TrEMBL record:
It comes from the Bacteria. Gene3D superfamilies: Ribonuclease Z/Hydroxyacylglutathione hydrolase-like, Winged helix-like DNA-binding domain superfamily/Winged helix DNA-binding domain. This is Beta-lactamase. Pfam families: Lactamase_B, WHD_BLACT. Residues 36-209 form the Metallo-beta-lactamase domain.
Amino acid sequence: MNATRDIEKPYAVAEQIGPLVRRVLARNPSPFTFTGTQTYIVGEGRDVAVIDPGPDEAEHLDALVEAIGDARVVAICCTHTHRDHSPAAAPLAARTGAPIAGCAPLILDDDGPRADASFDPTYRPDRILADGEALTGDGWTLTAIATPGHTSNHLCFALEETGALFTGDHVMGWSTSVVSPPDGDMTAYLASLQKLHERTQDSVYYPAHGPAVTRPRQLVRGMIGHRRQREKQIQRQIEAGRTRIADMVPHMYKGVDERLWPAAGRSVLAHLIDLEKRGITTRREDEWMLLARS
């Protein structure tokens, strides 16, 4: 993956990227966060909302406070609670007096290597938003869209006035989302993708990492197709005698940086669990087999 194919972005600077939307990029680039976490400030009037405040880093927090200025922060919204998304919520709330709203808290002991970031145990929301609940401010409305899959508590936020959708890690233009069990769920992820594909009102996606998505339904359709191809590829691996995930990944991800293979293995596991639910695979310890189809 090559960060240079994204535009040059300054860190800790508020950039106007669309109607009612500014972006502040956190200085936390990595193979899993691309150029870093993008925090969005919604609103141009007397009050604003902050989406995905990002990591608890002084430079980033100072930039957010400067960009907010004299506006009132109606809510600090988190799409989910990986450590690159929500840790700045509490210190930003302390500095602005704003409530924290959005996804539910989630703390898990993962059963494998973390693929993107571990969960944030400090996240304490003042308000948990259910699917369809809205936040309003001066000239803007944000509606929560439940999109479990990458994590069970993942939300997107729709800016009703402009057709923008803040997609967190659910849909990104630069990379597919990691789905890592036990909390990541491929069945839920695919259902959430289908849910977004059916939303014809969304004209642009603003993900937490990477460039804006200007043809969102086309991208989502392609992502669903990609996942269906992956599950067929997994079945072919099993048919070829590769019954362990560690044996499948090198063949399935030959052109991928080997540092990302643990993450790829987690998504393969998520696919296998989905196939197991559908009666296509079964397992014995760490070996997977295809069930005979009638």
